[in-house]
TrEMBL record:
SUPFAM superfamilies named in the record: PLP-dependent transferases, Winged helix' DNA-binding domain
Pfam families hit by this protein: Aminotran_1_2, GntR
UniProt organism field: Bacillus aquiflavi
Cofactor(s) needed: pyridoxal 5'-phosphate
CDD domains: AAT_like, WHTH_GntR
The protein's name: PLP-dependent aminotransferase family protein
Keyword terms of this UniProt record: Aminotransferase, DNA-binding, Pyridoxal phosphate, Transcription, Transcription regulation, Transferase
Chain ranges of the HTH gntR-type domain: 14-82
Membrane-spanning segments: none
GO terms for MF: DNA binding; DNA-binding transcription factor activity; pyridoxal phosphate binding; transaminase activity
Gene3D superfamilies: Type I PLP-dependent aspartate aminotransferase-like (Major domain), Winged helix-like DNA-binding domain superfamily/Winged helix DNA-binding domain
The family this protein is said to belong to: In the C-terminal section; belongs to the class-I pyridoxal-phosphate-dependent aminotransferase family.
Length: 482
């Protein structure tokens, strides 16, 4: 039997049983508590943590209801085995059996990961040529440490690009390059302040929440409404910084309308408040006219704009950037230049040449068309095979959708049944912190699959989720719609 030592905070609005439930769930998801392990009895855990047995009982009941544990009469509560790598942040390591579980992608025929992109259309020959060109002797300075913010030439190209494509107004001096958005967020907590209170969308991007947690800054979960983050709840909170994904809310895909953007900017007018605008896949929009970035509407210098090349180019390049307000540029120059640049200067120079010579614009336009066709195929396949037995959420932009399946299955059951057909889909529950989804949903990314694979994968999901009687119902619904 293991010993659990979560940090439970009586000062939080979140009840103790919810805090305990979240802790155990995460430990199971990451593999820190292995399948088959017996959880401590209610009596022993209550005595160990100094809380009531009712609190333990309620947390265990929630874990049991969601399929993480099973209760055996007169034996105890045991962790159940989860099928495959269901959780994107799973460490795949069990510290109890000291074994590393490898991720065997070959067991899946189709992987609807939102983190994968289309590699078939990547300009390999052009990128290779520019990489070699970057290694010429006249560019030998790239073998030395460069500007901590990133190479000036690349920052100049990025400044031009974000202005033309997203309406972001900035100078190269305001741009800070880093190896991924998570690294940049760590630096931002140093610039804004560890004593600040950070608000986050709930549900929201779990990797951002992890950064705030690891940096030991206080976070507040803010629910969503039909236009994005709730201004009412934000104004009632004591937050002085808020992280949002307005161009494609993660994971719901909501595109924040202009009125809500202006309301957010009004909120940020108070002294010392900042909006962190993560525009992680703002390049890909399929319905409606583009809405300018929050940063482009900001005249009070309170928006920090985050962008990345992970979705539009390749994830492994690990090249993201932040556009800082003037006040934070001064803070950076005074305190953070001691941190050396984390992105390879070879990659920086190659990307600079790629953008300068016009390859980037051509590639981005091509990928917009590629992903638009894939998105149309995904939506069409769902309607063809599943019909009204599922609701599509967030199909207007980005490289993923949410699917709410109307068959009485839980999130875990939907994923497990899909795995039986060798189709890998993803949960949405991991993106919730304080609030909870009304109905189970799963996440389907489509960037890394071909149109044929998308169609075949959705057909297999139909087989996984519906029996023959349900299929006849779907067909009759489709016929009625025609």
């Amino acid at each position: 039997m293991i010993e659990l030592t979560p940090h439970l905070d009586n000062e939080k609005k979140e009840p103790l049983y919810v805090q305990l439930y979240h802790y155990i769930r995460e430990e199971i998801q990451t593999g820190n508590i292995a399948p088959g392990v017996k959880l401590p009895s209610k009596r022993k855990l209550a005595a160990h943590l100094g809380i009531s047995q009712n609190t333990i009982e309620t947390a265990y009941q929630q874990l049991n209801a969601e399929g993480y544990v099973k209760s055996e009469l007169r034996k105890g509560v045991y962790v159940k085995k989860l099928a495959g790598d269901l959780y994107p942040y799973s460490s795949r390591i069990s510290f109890h059996n000291k074994k590393v579980t490898k991720n065997h992608d070959e067991q899946y025929k189709f992987d609807f990961s939102h983190g994968k992109v289309d590699l078939e259309h990547f300009p390999y020959s052009t990128w290779r040529k520019l990489t070699v060109q970057s290694l010429y002797e006249e560019n030998s300075e790239i073998f030395f440490n460069g500007d901590p913010k990133g190479d000036t030439n690349l920052r100049e190209e990025i400044a031009q690009y974000v202005f033309q494509s997203r309406g972001v107004t900035c100078s190269p001096e305001q741009i800070m390059i880093g190896a991924g958005t998570q690294y940049l967020l760590r630096l931002l907590t140093m610039l804004i302040g560890k004593e600040s209170i950070y608000a986050m969308e709930d549900p929201g991007f779990h990797r951002t929440r992890a950064v705030f947690k690891h940096e030991n800054v206080k976070t507040i979960s803010i629910p969503l409404d039909e236009e994005g983050i709730s201004l009412k709840h934000l104004e009632e909170s004591r937050a002085n910084a808020v992280y949002i994904t307005p161009s494609h809310q993660f994971p719901f895909g909501t595109i924040m309308p202009i009125n809500r953007r202006l309301e957010l900017l009004k909120w940020a007018e108070a002294k010392g408040r900042y909006i962190i605008e993560d525009d992680y896949d703002g390049e890909f929009r399929y319905i409606g006219k583009p809405i300018p970035s929050l940063q482009g509407l900001d005249f009070k210098d309170s928006v920090i704009y985050l962008g990345t090349f992970s979705k539009s180019l390749i994830p492994s390049i690990r090249l993201s950037y932040a556009v800082l307000p003037t006040a934070l540029v001064n803070q950076y120059d005074q305190h953070l230049t001691i941190y050396k640049q984390t992105v390879s200067r070879l990659h920086q120079h190659t990307l600079f040449l790629f953008m300068k010579n016009g390859h980037w614009k051509s590639h981005l336009n091509k990928m917009r068309n590629v992903y638009r066709k894939k998105q149309h195929m995904l939506v069409a396949s769902i309607k063809k095979y599943i019909g009204n037995k599922a609701t599509i959420i967030g199909e207007k932009s980005g490289l993923h959708i949410l699917l709410q399946v109307h068959n009485q299955m839980s999130e875990l059951e939907l994923i497990k049944n899909a795995l039986k057909k060798k189709v890998k889909i993803y949960p949405t529950s991991i993106y919730y912190e304080q609030y909870k989804a009304d109905k189970p949903m799963v996440l389907l990314g489509f960037g890394g699959l071909s149109e044929t694979e998308i169609d075949e994968g959705i057909k297999l999901l139909k087989d996984a989720w519906f029996n023959e009687k349900d299929e006849n119902t779907v067909q009759s619904m489709n016929d009625a719609d025609q």
